[in-house]
Design brief:
34% of the residues lie in helices and 14% in strands. The longest helix has 30 residues. It has 16 helices and 13 strands. It is an alpha/beta fold. The N and C termini lie far apart (75 Å). It binds calcium ion (CA). The site of calcium ion has 6 residues, from loops.
């Protein structure tokens, strides 16, 4: 009977604790953020792809909230993760090409939660820098949870943040139970060209999604075993699109930037609930801080925007999670930087803004050819090109991968695969102008100069200045050690 009384009290007290950030809430949750790698948001059982076996993710979804309109502001691994961890859009933080790093001094949710008493760790895939921006303890590998268990049980007096960054289903697709998927029997999504090569690749991609699902199952068992499930907010994100042509990665189409998101938080988030509120990765750190009783509006993100504002670009969507609201953003934004990507030939910068229904894309160098190693070379594209010799519709679809107009406008409601460009249709001129104004304002706030910014991308790759002296010191120490050994 006593326990029955305590539970409703916790419900009442916790939101108050969030409002009065100075007073720590009675119970601060642990955070387990699980990140897939190159998983198109559509390719999960509970999202509607019933050919992909994801029993553990299906269960997680039934125990939490499915957020159907989360978006990443970038469409490759490294800038997506920087935005997800820092709460800052990519250009402002300096982390906009692939294999990038934030400006020195930028802070992340690892910094902020650590400062408020959390223990913080990241398991497996990193792809962020500089190290001082991301002060986590690194746990290598994704398949062995021995060190994970040690981390989550080591100190019961302090809550923890663990980011579990899987490598699955990032290509090459070599892992997972392939026997589950017969290429001949698969349904080919309408945005892919159906041939034997596509089928074979889709089967091994699906197997690797099931591998990811097994990792999720193991993590959930670990929380159960260590009796931390009820105290832990679990968030799963699909990261960004798959590496199939039109699978979305390296593009700002919805397949690339839309993110399947599930949040389980026992006692706080209603099991089996859904929200279609527009949210972005940059909103995740403020939300975690709010859930931990820290006021995210008082945070110094460590890196100013073009107006000198030092707060997050994102805001807390805690009210959406708690079922108090289903409206959040009016617009989401994304960018893609080609310079510095493996095998890129010419700059091909993209910018996009989307509301609930429409998306405007600007390709800032439409006179160039978009060509990178990932989608424009090798299979399945070579087989698509061969088939296109006798299929004009497919030929046009293949050509679109390389050449796009300066502007693209889509009605996502009637055209969810973004195949009918309305940018030149006068009926949509007002919608295009409204979205264009939002995009201009976002780029200005970010200090994004379009092509200029694209051309500076390489200066945002590699090691930071902060790391270089450390390397020099290490090299000097190694030299001394060698001398001594002689
Ligand atoms: Ca990725």
């Amino acid at each position: 009977m006593k326990a029955m009384l305590i539970v409703p009290m916790a419900w009442l007290l916790a939101p108050l604790a969030v409002l009065h950030a100075a007073e720590p809430p009675a119970l601060r949750p642990n955070f387990l953020l699980i990140i897939a790698d190159d998983l198109c948001w559509r390719d999960l059982g509970f999202v509607g792809n019933h050919e992909v076996h994801t029993p553990n993710l299906d269960r997680l979804r039934s125990e939490g909230m499915h957020m159907t309109a989360m978006f990443t502001p970038a469409t490759t691994c490294s800038p997506s993760r920087h935005a997800l961890y820092t709460g800052l859009y990519c250009v402002r933080a300096g982390a906009y090409p692939n294999h990038t790093r934030a400006y020195d001094g930028t802070k992340s949710m690892f910094t902020h939660l650590k400062e408020s008493g959390y223990r913080v760790a990241l398991q497996n895939k990193q792809h962020v820098g500089p190290p001082s921006t991301f002060p986590y303890e690194h746990i290598p590998g994704a398949d062995d949870l021995t060190k994970t268990k040690d981390f989550v049980t080591r100190d019961k007096t302090r809550p923890w943040l663990l980011v579990f960054a899987s490598n699955d289903p990032h290509g090459p697709w070599t892992r997972g139970p392939r026997d589950l998927y017969d290429p001949a029997k698969l349904t080919i999504p309408p945005y892919l060209h159906d041939n034997a090569v596509t089928r074979k690749q889709l089967a091994v991609y699906y197997a690797e999604i099931t591998k990811l699902d097994e990792q999720v199952g193991a993590l959930m068992r670990l929380l159960d075993e260590t009796q931390q499930a009820k105290d832990t907010l679990v968030m799963f994100v699909s990261e960004q699109g798959s590496s199939f042509p039109y699978g979305g990665k390296w593009s700002v189409y919805d397949n690339g930037i839309r993110v399947t998101t599930v949040i389980r938080w026992p006692g706080r988030v209603k099991p089996g609930s859904s929200s279609d509120a527009l949210v972005q990765y940059v909103d995740v750190p403020p939300t975690f801080l709010a859930a931990a009783g820290v006021d995210p509006t008082q945070i110094d993100a460590g890196c100013p925007d073009a107006n000198g504002n030092r707060g997050f670009d994102g805001r807390s969507f805690l009210d959406v999670l708690l079922g108090k609201s289903n409206r959040f953003r009016d617009y989401i934004f994304s960018q893609h930087t080609t310079v510095g990507i493996n095998g890129y030939q010419e700059p091909y910068p993209m910018r996009a803004v989307r509301d609930e229904r429409y998306k405007l894309i600007r390709n800032l160098a439409p006179q160039n050819t978009y060509s990178i190693a990932g989608i424009h070379k090798g299979e399945p594209l070579t087989s698509w090109q061969a088939d296109a010799a006798e299929d004009p519709k497919l030929a046009a679809r293949v050509d679109w991968l390389f050449h796009r107009p300066a502007e693209e406008l889509y009605d996502l409601e009637s055209d969810p695969y973004e195949m009918e460009n309305l940018a030149e249709d006068k009926k949509f001129a007002r919608i295009k102008a409204r979205l264009g104004k939002q995009l201009d304002a976002w780029m200005a706030q970010q200090g994004d100069e379009g092509m200029e910014t694209e051309l500076q991308a390489k200066s945002r790759q590699g090691k930071s200045d902060e790391e270089k002296p450390r390397n020099k010191r290490a090299a000097k120490a190694r030299g001394k050690a060698r001398e001594k050994a002689r």
